[in-house]
Amino acid sequence: MLWTGAEVAELDGFSFLQGRRVAVVGNPSSLVRAARLGPGRHHLVDALRSHGVQIVRLFGPEHGLWSTAQDLIPVEGGRDPVFDLEVATLYGRSVDSLTPRPEVLRGLDVVVFDVQDVGARYYTYAATLCMTLTACANAGVQVVVLDRPNPLGGETVEGNEVALNYRSFVGYIDLPQRHGLTLGEIGRLYAHEQGLDVDLNVVACRGWDPALHLDECDDGGRGSPWYAPSPNMPTVATAVVYPGTCLVEGTKLSEGRGTTRPFELVGAPWLDARKLADRLMDLGIPGLLARPMRYEPTFQKFAGQACGGVALDVTNRQVFPSVRAGVAVIQAMREQDIARFEWRTEVYEFVSDRLAIDLLMGGTHARTVLEAGGDYRDACSDFAQAERVFARRALPHLIYPRARGVFAGLDAGLADRGTP
User: Fold this and answer.
1) C-alpha–C-alpha distance, residues 351 and 335, integer Å
2) Same fold: 5-216 with 236-379
3) Would you state the pLDDT for residue 401?
4) Is beta strand 142-146 parallel, antiparallel or unpaired with respect to 110-113?
């Protein structure tokens, strides 16, 4: 049976937090089984309090403590009406707000981080963890990561590097778009590579099989429960396509926000749904069925307008190359009408001097290939080497055994090529 890091710690009564002044970075996904609170799952804050842990304040990452804010919407701090605790924002109106300020760390002994990640570079909770580690290193505050499974499993790595001048909140640490790590492993990698003098304690999951997606894991005969960690991540199926279709965010086309299937629906009012579906099927993306679809977003891009597009159904998760599929989707949409296709040019995650698509891709290579009329395979030609280099970096910081040794295999491939 799968137990998250929070549940492993709860079984021990959160003994390592007793008598200490604690802050919690959490959101609605911070759920834990706690027998003393009754059946089902309860919020981590309630579980901590049931064991007498002193919680001084809470931190709300992007979307806020209760994930009520949409993407790119600043979140204010204040007093939380549910827990009656001070909440400090980690996603406010300036880039400085993304890092815990010295004054909100003052008087703390430990910051506990317990948020569900989705396994993609752009999902900003990993960046929030890294920034928290840096701030806590400077303040002499311990960081405890209550680890959670990567919902995409831990045996697939796909994507390229993040060039140094394209680092941002959606690419704060150099990871492939689909990285295969948990937040605890990312924290270990980041702290090591940055040389941080930080007391980092990762409480590992128990019973997690990295060969499985989260909804395939054993949880007493049921798939492990999923509670949306952000407003547009309703299911594990959403997370499966997200490493690719989040790239549509870097265009002025709809990535399906404002519908019940965000990131699984993509389109625009001017697109021919049938032609788009046929073109994507012609591109032969393994494990993908693209169905013609019409939909009308209720907010954000094209709100109230009928869009032509596709519904992306993954028929085989094991072979589906999510990131490459996202690049292929952009290729196919752009091909329909180059004159009407546009890249997103507005300020994106506090960055105004580089295109959103380049921030998401970690550089300009994919965009320039597509603009020249190239194929998505050429746009992703830098992936294989980047994946091998990343595997070598990540291997010493892995916590969970990989059933098929994917990271070791990638590292061996790098050695075979004679790369230093």
Assistant:
1) 28
2) no
3) 79
4) parallel
pTM: 0.95
**pLDDT digits 0-9 by tens, 136-167:** 999 999 999 999 999 999 999 999 999 999 99
Structure tokens, 239: 């997370």
Cα–Cα distance for residue pair 252/280, rounded to 1 Å: 19
Stated length of the chain: 420
CATH number of 5-216: 3.40.50.12170
- Identify which has the larger pLDDT, 151 or 221: 151
- Read off the pLDDT of residues 64-85 as tens digits, 9 standing for 90 and up: 999 999 999 999 999 999 999 9
Radius of gyration in angstroms for the set of CA atoms belonging to the chain, rounded to a whole number? 21
Please say if the pLDDT value at position 417 is more than 60.
no
Q: Which of the four pLDDT bands, split at 50, 70 and 90, describes residue 220? A: low
Residues 6+ apart with CB under 8 A from 196: 133, 134, 137, 190
Q: How far apart are the C-alpha atoms of 205 and 2, rounded to whole Å?
A: 7
**Annotation: CATH topology of 236-379:** Aspartate Aminotransferase, domain 1 (3.90.1150)
Contacts of 61 (CB under 8 A, 6+ apart): 25, 27, 90, 91, 115, 124, 125, 128
Is 76 or 414 the better-scoring residue by pLDDT?
Answer: 76
Q: Residues near 368 by Cβ (< 8 Å), separated by ≥ 6?
A: none
* Distance (Å, whole) CA 224 – CA 73: 30
Which residues partner with 24 through β-bridges? 58, 112
Place of tokens 């579906």: 277
* Two structure tokens written together for 230: 């952000």
Q: How far apart are CA 244 and CA 235, in angstroms?
A: 16
Place of tokens 């400077």: 138
Distances (CA, A) of 406 to 193, 256, 303, 343: 22, 32, 42, 35
Domain boundaries, the chain: 5-216, 236-379, 383-416
H-only helix segments in 311-420:
322-336, 356-361, 365-371, 376-379, 383-394, 406-416
φ, ψ for residue 245, nearest 5 deg:
-80, -10
pLDDT at 225: 80
Task: Return the pLDDT at 122.
Answer: 97
